[in-house]
């Protein structure tokens, strides 16, 4: 049965292996984090343990990403696959745990399958950045296995493996600080180490609390550690921003929200916004929760699992229920990953214990359980496609929250990456109209203006934001520095780029931009110092001129052609005999020309690269053919493409020859070759 759960869960979530990275946390955690992408190395392992990133210390999470990079490479497939496999293993572990605790086979199957296939799991599994959920869940379930072994013979020292798993889990996601309280609940049921009576609590309670000293110590340690990192990172909202009365009023509303999404998992979204907190709503929700709690405690006289499951749900949500507010998220599907297990237990064991025993009961349970699981699996498959990429994710958010500034901003970033700069600018401006005080929205809008060659509009927008909001804002300073670079004034750009690199975030590409400004300003010593800092932070591939050229080539491919072309245009004045740069830039100009580039420039660069070669390579001639085709000179394109094809064949380069042959046929049809294949003329 455990293997069946693994197979069914992997099949259910398998479409996610073809999904892309998102521009919401995935970019900071994986796709844009060069340390993670270089895999497990001594330097990256040291970074994982030494760094507080995004206001968290999560070394185990970083190591898991780095292992993926080493095993599968840096495409999204491997990271998605690991998330799915961990979630499937969690389903199997949960079934084995419940069955070993209770010897109740079918309730154990139901709870494990409900946990695994419920639509609220989609966010935790399909979002690469939420590796925290599935990995910490795996470590918690291992902890419970070891704790069961300890509970049979609770001698000092036997709890260490369980405590070690808890420590690893906390180094993945600090939400697990409530785990010792969960262990006390499990001591009541299913381990039955104490009874709910005054005498029993007095006799056994202190002993059960005392034996968990390692677990309590970890809870205290990580509470202080997380509070410290969050405070230093300025991620915690103070009572001036969110008063205590508002926080307390939001707690019952949030619990009812999670209950509602569990029972009816529709209109699921990455972002929900703040919940409505009218006084009547908070009081009604509090009364409803109190009634459910009293009912669970009353039902506990016949079924211990009922109050344990309910309190499991309530207790594990405490760190994220709104008492301490971190970031902009109040409620999220991912917060229910482990707490939802408690609800499943309460329903499965409560129903089987409280309903009268009748011949038809087993049939009824089988039919209802099957219907629930099939419905959950179907709805999960319907929810998965929303996570295909950033565009689909934020289209889904905007469908339910059309006034979400964050959604408009991130949707704009996705459009920017897709080359739809005008549309992106409209969404950035919408985000600013909703929330005019958030500096990344302004910086993104200015960046879009740069890409549209509207630098003179971007500069006053950025200068006004720096003056009115935060003169030290790294992002605003960075984009303003880029603006002056775009105008060919590196001396004016340097102060802003320096200020951008004074922030706590590790942004190697920002240092590369500063090194470029120093080079173009003739300050080679300062540029060398920036390259040394990049290398010292573990970003060796970017730490020299060749690395900078690779960075701008990649930037071009991501839709920032104007910015990259301005770099290469100036670079070629001092590196006019560099064949590799000439050839690569000619290819980029021909296949993905930015606005403002001279149409004939690709041909000129490709011809110079050919003339400088002492030995002609087929790739050089292939680039020349692409350049002629982009300019509409198809006869010359066909001639040079055939020359490149014959040269590739004679050199035994069969795959290259095949690609060149495909391009030759495209030129013969009067079409050019773009970055995605055959296109009509680009000019």
SSE topology:
Elements: H1 2-13, H2 26-31, H3 34-37, H4 42-50, H5 59-72, H6 76-102, H7 105-117, H8 122-126, H9 131-152, H10 160-170, H11 179-188, H12 198-210, H13 213-232, H14 244-263, H15 279-299, H16 305-316, H17 339-354, H18 361-383, H19 390-400, H20 405-417, H21 421-434, H22 439-451, H23 455-468, H24 474-486, H25 490-500, H26 508-520, H27 524-536, H28 545-557, H29 561-574, H30 579-591, H31 601-612, H32 618-630, H33 634-650, H34 654-668, E1 672-674, E2 677-679
Antiparallel strand pairs: 1-2
Q: What structural category do the secondary elements indicate? A: mainly alpha
What's the total count of β strands? 2
Strand content: under 5%
The Rg value, from CA coordinates, equals 29 Å
Please tell me what the overall shape is. Answer: elongated
How many helices? The count is: 34
Strand order of the largest sheet: 1-2
Q: Give the oligomeric state.
A: single chain
Q: Give the termini separation.
A: 61 Å
What integer is the average pLDDT?
91
Range of helix content: 55-70%
Poorly predicted sequence stretches spanning 5 or more consecutive residues:
none
Largest sheet: 2 strands, antiparallel
Characterization of the model:
By secondary structure, this protein is mainly alpha-helical. Helix content is 69%, strand content 1%. It is built from 34 helices and 2 strands. The protein has helices spanning 2-13, 26-31, 34-37, 42-50, 59-72, 76-102, 105-117, 122-126, 131-152, 160-170, 179-188, 198-210, 213-232, 244-263, 279-299, 305-316, 339-354, 361-383, 390-400, 405-417, 421-434, 439-451, 455-468, 474-486, 490-500, 508-520, 524-536, 545-557, 561-574, 579-591, 601-612, 618-630, 634-650, 654-668, and strands spanning 672-674, 677-679. Strands 1-2 form a two-stranded antiparallel sheet. The longest helix has 27 residues, at 76-102. The N and C termini lie far apart (61 Å). The mean pLDDT is 91.
């Amino acid at each position: 049965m455990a293997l069946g759960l693994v197979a069914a869960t992997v099949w259910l979530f398998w479409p996610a292996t073809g999904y892309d990275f998102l521009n919401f946390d995935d970019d900071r955690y994986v796709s844009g984090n060069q340390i993670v992408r270089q895999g497990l190395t001594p330097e990256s392992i040291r970074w994982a343990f030494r760094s507080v990133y995004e206001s968290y210390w999560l070394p185990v999470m970083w190591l898991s990403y780095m292992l993926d990079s080493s095993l599968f490479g840096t495409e999204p497939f491997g990271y998605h696959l690991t998330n799915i496999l961990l979630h499937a293993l969690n389903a199997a572990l949960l079934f084995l745990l419940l069955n070993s605790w209770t010897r109740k086979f079918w309730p154990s199957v139901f709870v494990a399958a409900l946990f695994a296939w419920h639509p609220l799991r989609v966010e935790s599994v399909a979002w690469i950045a939420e590796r925290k959920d599935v990995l910490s869940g795996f470590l918690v379930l291992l902890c419970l296995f070891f704790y069961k072994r300890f509970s049979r013979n609770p001698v000092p020292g036997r709890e260490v493996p369980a405590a070690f798993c808890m420590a690893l889990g906390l180094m993945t996601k600090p939400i697990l600080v409530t785990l010792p309280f969960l262990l006390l609940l499990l001591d009541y049921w299913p381990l039955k180490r104490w009874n709910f009576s005054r005498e029993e609590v007095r006799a056994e309670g202190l002993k059960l609390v005392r034996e968990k000293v390692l677990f309590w110590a970890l809870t205290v340690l990580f509470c202080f550690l997380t509070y410290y990192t969050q405070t230093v990172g300025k991620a915690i909202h103070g009572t001036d921003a969110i008063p205590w009365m508002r926080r307390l009023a939001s707690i019952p509303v949030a619990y009812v929200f999670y209950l509602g999404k569990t029972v009816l998992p529709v209109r699921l979204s990455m972002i929900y916004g703040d919940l409505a907190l009218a006084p009547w709503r908070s009081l009604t929700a509090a009364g409803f929760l109190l009634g459910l709690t009293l009912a669970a405690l009353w039902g506990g006289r016949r079924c211990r699992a009922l109050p344990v499951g309910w309190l499991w749900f309530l207790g594990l949500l405490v760190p994220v229920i709104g008492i301490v507010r971190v970031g902009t998220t109040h409620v999220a599907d991912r917060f229910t990953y482990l707490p939802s297990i408690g609800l499943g237990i309460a329903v499965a064991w409560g129903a089987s214990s409280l309903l009268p025993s009748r011949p038809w009961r087993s049939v009824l349970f089988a039919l209802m359980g099957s219907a629930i699981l099939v419905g959950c699996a179907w709805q999960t498959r319907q929810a998965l496609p929303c996570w295909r990429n950033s565009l689909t994710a934020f289209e889904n958010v905007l469908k339910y929250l059309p006034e979400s500034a964050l959604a408009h901003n991130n949707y704009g970033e996705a459009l920017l990456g897709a080359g739809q700069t005008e549309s992106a600018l409209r969404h950035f401006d919408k985000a600013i109209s909703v929330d005019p005080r958030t500096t990344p929205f302004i910086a993104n809008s200015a960046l879009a203006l740069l890409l549209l060659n509207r630098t003179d509009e971007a500069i006053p927008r950025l200068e006004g934001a720096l003056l009115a909001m935060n003169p030290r804002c790294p992002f605003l300073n960075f984009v303003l520095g880029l603006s002056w670079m775009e105008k060919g004034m590196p001396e004016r750009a340097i102060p802003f780029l320096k200020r951008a690199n004074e922030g706590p975030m590790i942004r190697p590409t920002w240092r590369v931009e500063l090194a470029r400004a120093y080079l173009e300003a003739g300050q080679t010593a300062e540029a060398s110092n920036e390259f040394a800092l990049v290398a010292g932070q573990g970003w060796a591939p970017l730490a020299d001129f060749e690395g900078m050229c690779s960075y701008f080539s990649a930037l071009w491919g991501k839709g920032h052609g104007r910015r990259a072309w301005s770099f290469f245009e100036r670079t070629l004045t001092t590196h006019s005999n560099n064949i590799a740069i000439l050839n690569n830039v000619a290819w980029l100009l021909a296949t993905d020309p930015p606005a403002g580039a001279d149409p004939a420039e690709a041909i000129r660069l490709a011809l110079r690269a050919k003339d400088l070669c002492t030995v002609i390579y087929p790739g050089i001639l292939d680039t020349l053919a692409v350049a002629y085709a982009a300019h509409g000179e198809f006869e010359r394109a066909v001639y040079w493409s055939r020359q490149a094809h014959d040269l590739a064949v004679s050199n035994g380069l069969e795959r290259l020859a095949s690609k060149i042959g495909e391009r030759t046929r495209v030129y013969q049809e009067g079409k050019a070759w773009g970055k995605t294949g055959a296109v009509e003329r680009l000019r």
